[in-house]
Amino acid sequence: MLMSTYSFYLESEAGVPAPNMNPEIILMKSLPDGLNLPNSFIENANLLLKDVGDGVYVFFFDWEGWEDNNPYLDLEAYNQDVKRSIFVKIKTGFETQDQAYISMRIERQDILPELVDRVQISADSLNSSSEYLKTVVDKILSIEEGSWVVRENKFLVFSKDTAPDDMKDTNAIYSFDLKDQSGNPTSTNPFSRIVTGI
Fold first, then answer.
1. Does the residue 97 lie in any domain?
2. Does 49 share its domain with 12?
3. Residue 153 within any structural domain of the chain
4. Do 45 and 70 contact (CB within 8 A), yes or no?
5. DSSP, res 36
6. Does the reported pTM lie above 0.70?
7. Is residue 89 part of a domain?
8. Does residue 24 sit in the same domain as residue 85?
């Protein structure tokens, strides 16, 4: 769900705010398609429409929900380059004809900064996952490509660049204690290995 907040202002007369009205959205139309949005979108917008004081009213619109239910998005003729927007007609609650309705247009680009933030978060997450994956792969390669030595009941792993004369316990990149089936230290026919250093 990707909600965006929209506002409009009502005056009872020039310069006089009109709080405590009961405005109602009565029409939402996709532009330039001319497609009327389902009543469910209008009902949801009205359900969350509220008076925030001083003649200012706010409502919310779910862009992702609209895109998921817009039949034009499934047509081959749909042009992705066309910037879609929504025409909104609002019944203000005033009796006089010149004040009875107002209209506005809302656009998908209104939430672009939030979309950019989401993309950045996703990119950061991918980068973090990539770094973690590289670390894991490097560890696996160091074991597979490195030298293994069993000595004094220990299984020692050295990097592939370690010279034989330098294969001392302190230079091991991984070390494991080897145990027999009874749990006793062993260098022959080990039953288990217990990590002691990574």
1. yes
2. yes
3. yes
4. no
5. B
6. no
7. yes
8. yes
What is the residue type of 114? E
As given in the structure block, the two tokens for residue 48 are: 């969350």
pLDDT digit string, tens, across residues 27-61: 999 888 888 888 888 998 999 999 999 999 999 98
Mark which of 64, 95, 115 sits at the end of a domain: 115
For residue 32, cis peptide bond before it (omega within 30 degrees of 0): yes
User: Considering the domain boundaries, does residue 124 fall inside one?
Assistant: no
Rounded Cα gap, residues 17 and 42, in angstroms:
25
- Are both 37 and 95 inside the same structural domain? yes
For residue 177, what are the β-bridge partners? 154, 194
Residues in a beta bridge with 152: none
Q: For 114, list phi and psi in degrees, rounded to 5.
A: -65, -40
User: pLDDT by residue (tens digit) across 124-165?
Assistant: 777 777 887 887 787 788 778 888 899 889 999 988 888 989
Domain that includes residue 164, residue range: 143-197
Q: What total number of domains does the chain contain?
A: 2
Phi, psi of 75 (to 5 degrees): -85, 145
Q: Which residues does residue 179 pair with via DSSP β-bridges, in sequence order?
A: 185, 192
What the block records as the tokens of 41 is 């979108």
Q: Beta-strand (E) ranges in the chain?
A: 3-9, 11-13, 16-17, 24-31, 50-53, 56-62, 85-91, 101-107, 147-151, 154-158, 174-179, 192-197
Distance CA 188, CA 65 (A): 64
